């Protein structure tokens, strides 16, 4: 027997001990030969660098630093940070809806189905959801569009909501929150130069839209809501924005947020009909963000879905206007942001394009199955004859009733502060008041290289512990300044927050304004 040649050769190789090799690496590094990083700020995709998302921007980062300092025993002129920057209901103290959590718990841990603690209607829904999952487990993948019968439940919900307007479950796609659904925008971006896709968005807007437009290299086309008319959408402004945009891009998409974020308005049926007629005439794809459809507080307002109004305009409109509408588990009365559940319904999509949409959905495999289960509870809530019905509606009404009270209180207190003007919070979860800032404060902000309302919100945070989002992060008319705040904190804490904002604003005016400016 002879030893194989490769073994002999291996034995003859001059292998260095590990410590010697480490030393050689250290010498190479010392000599400046360390491998350079591939991904740096210079090589980073410039469109990623351009993306901004104010809701979790620098003010929120600073709030986190202050919070950690307080936890470590640091001294601040306040004892806690109150974050009113984001619509995260449970983080603000809102309690979960019992029935929803029962169903998801049963789906997650099926052994609980034998427990007498859970009501039979919750068990019935959980068994049904599990039967739609591979291996009867919430941990399995589902179809990319979501579990079929949950999509069917969504379609039934839409029909009931819209008083009999037909809904085809094949047009329903379950999503990872509404934000995931809005990525359908990717399919609409094409062309170069003056033929590049323009996307019309309201100003003020939810920064998800501007961020997506930037990342996808589309062209942002701003149309301004009418602040003097409770943030109504003016059809003449749509025409102005469209015609101006046609000089440098091709507007193809019209985005609507109703009820509004950050502005809290609820669009009238007349307004919606005008918008849809405009979209029909200009051949625009309509994206209707309706995640706050349950959050309507003003007795003079009513939520109208864009789909329902489109149907009532007749077959010529209903069978031709391309419309994608969105809903979510994160808002409404459930506030289940962490489940990342949602859906979109897409009408009048070209069949070949629909196949491409399904392909894109399949790349992401499927939405979180726990989120699909939560969405199913929202669209298939307890019926009057079921044991959980009374408690479910008691909890739902309590949440929405408390939000309506807080919306009114927020408007009243802010409008009592000199230099602050707040429109009625008709719906959604936010107030977006205008703040009058003295020229001296504006000049100081510009000298510091920041927006004036950013300076205001930063000072508010550092002096009171209140975390709000400057209006510049949402867009606003030139020369106006705002902040967005959520109305989600418990009523007592919200009152404390509003009182602190009032006291700070008066102090801020005294510091920066002349006596004449303070008296205006």
TrEMBL record:
Q: Which reaction does it catalyse?
A: L-alanine + 2-oxoglutarate = pyruvate + L-glutamate
Described function: Catalyzes the reversible transamination between alanine and 2-oxoglutarate to form pyruvate and glutamate.
Domain Aminotransferase class I/classII large: residue ranges? 120-500
What metabolic or biological pathway is this protein involved in? Amino-acid degradation; L-alanine degradation via transaminase pathway; pyruvate from L-alanine: step 1/1
- First-level EC class: transferase
The coiled-coil segments of this chain are none
Cofactor list: pyridoxal 5'-phosphate
Recorded GO molecular functions are: L-alanine:2-oxoglutarate aminotransferase activity; pyridoxal phosphate binding
> Which keywords annotate this record?
Aminotransferase, Pyridoxal phosphate, Transferase
Q: What is this protein called?
A: alanine transaminase
Q: How does it assemble?
A: Homodimer.
> Which family is annotated?
Belongs to the class-I pyridoxal-phosphate-dependent aminotransferase family. Alanine aminotransferase subfamily.
Tell me any Pfam family this protein matches. Aminotran_1_2
> EC number(s)?
2.6.1.2
Q: Which PANTHER family match?
A: ALANINE AMINOTRANSFERASE, ALANINE AMINOTRANSFERASE 2
Domain of life of the source: Eukaryota
What is the species of this protein? Denticeps clupeoides
What the entry lists under InterPro entries is as follows: ALAT1/2-like, Aminotransferase_I/II_large, PyrdxlP-dep_Trfase, PyrdxlP-dep_Trfase_major, PyrdxlP-dep_Trfase_small
- One cellular-component annotation, GO: cytoplasm
Organism classification = Eukaryota, Metazoa, Chordata, Craniata, Vertebrata
